[in-house]
Amino acid sequence: MLHSCHLLFICFSFLARFSNAQSNQFKGTKNYEGSSNLLDLQYHMGPILTSPINLYIIWYGNWNPKDQSTIKDFLYSLSSSSSVSPSTFDWWQTVRLYTDQTGSNITESISLSGEFIDSRYSHGKFLTRLSIQSVIKSSLDTLYRPLPLNYNNGLYLVLTSSDVQVQDFCRAVCGFHYFTFSSIVGATLPYAWVGDSGAQCPGVCAYPFAWPKYSGMPSGNKNIMGAPNGDPGIEGMISVIAHELAEVSTNPFVNAWYAGNDPSAPDEIADLCVGVYGSGAGGGFVGHVYKDKMGNGYNLNGVKGRRFLVQWVWDPIKRSCFGPNAIQ
Ligand SMILES: *[C@@H]1O[C@H](CO)[C@@H](O)[C@H](O)[C@H]1NC(C)=O
User: Fold this and answer.
1) Ligand 1: which residue has its CA nearest to atom 7?
2) Alpha carbon nearest to ligand 1 atom 6, residue
3) pLDDT digit string (tens) for 152-190?
């Protein structure tokens, strides 16, 4: 998602519906699984990320090593072909089906090429969309180990800790991607931001590991899915990071792959599959996913025996949402 909504709930007048019965919660969810004819996903001739991606993470705020390693293991898993199937690597192969004018596919390779820890909240605890670009600028200008300004194949990922508020976070977005402005950062660089919703709105941005407030769910939490790495906020971030990486790769400058006529509010390849994690998803059901021994939900395997629950993305050949855990 770029900067309109991509949330499971918010896209359809969320507050009004939350007072309804649980079974009605998700009726307005955009779910295009299998409904190929409705969709006008098109290539608008712009560049996509076909060169190996050098990913730079900016850890903004208060981060602990455990959560950082969960997220980094997910990122390593995207390019690691040796994980057990269905793997995170397999999931990225659907993103790779997108090509540009030259017939080049999205790259197979995503390397974590640098990290910057902004533990002093260089731009405060409330960030606007534009001040996130200033956070990136600060990470390039810092005296001690700055991130490189890599305008060939750099992709900058700003991750905010659970105590950081971001404009529209929880209300309209869980993450977004865009490109930087030269006047702020000194170059036009694709970037994405994702926030830890754990303390602010896990029911919105870490669904299905947390349940929306006001949803009328009975107490007891019987239907909440356990998070495979133990933290709903971080686990929710992983699916949103996957969502944003898929979209920034296929639409980095907002002139490549999207559906709809309005480039300022495009439906991108992951927007089309929000809430879909397995076959049969819809109507509030996330689809067929696996459960580990503890009963935690997951659909992808990764490095070091990690498991993740990641939403599906639009497959341009099948013309439906797809993930490697699909039941054939
Ligand atoms: C590249 O994209 C084309 C068109 O979607 C697809 O047929 C091909 O399998 C893709 N190649 C790779 C390596 O994913």
Assistant:
1) 97
2) 97
3) 999 999 999 999 999 999 999 999 999 999 999 999 999
CA of 193 to the centre of ligand 1 (A): 28
DSSP 94: H
Contact, 246 vs 162, CB < 8 A? no
Answer yes or no: is the C-beta of 96 below 6 A from any ligand 1 atom.
Answer: yes
The number of CA neighbours under 13 Å toward the Cβ of 249 is 30
Torsion of CA 130, 115, 199, 227, to 10 degrees: 130
Nearest ligand 1 atom to the CA of 96 is 14
Query: How many Cα atoms occupy the beta-carbon half-sphere of 51 within 13 Å?
Result: 10
Token pair listed for 206: 């870490």
Residues whose CB is less than 8 angstroms from the CB of residue 262 and which lie 6 or more positions away in sequence, other chains included? none
Q: Is the pTM of this model over 0.85?
A: yes
pLDDT tens per residue, range 202-229: 999 999 999 877 665 545 555 689 999 9
Report d(CA 97, CA 105) in Å as an integer: 6
CA angle 125, 129, 131 (to 5 degrees): 55
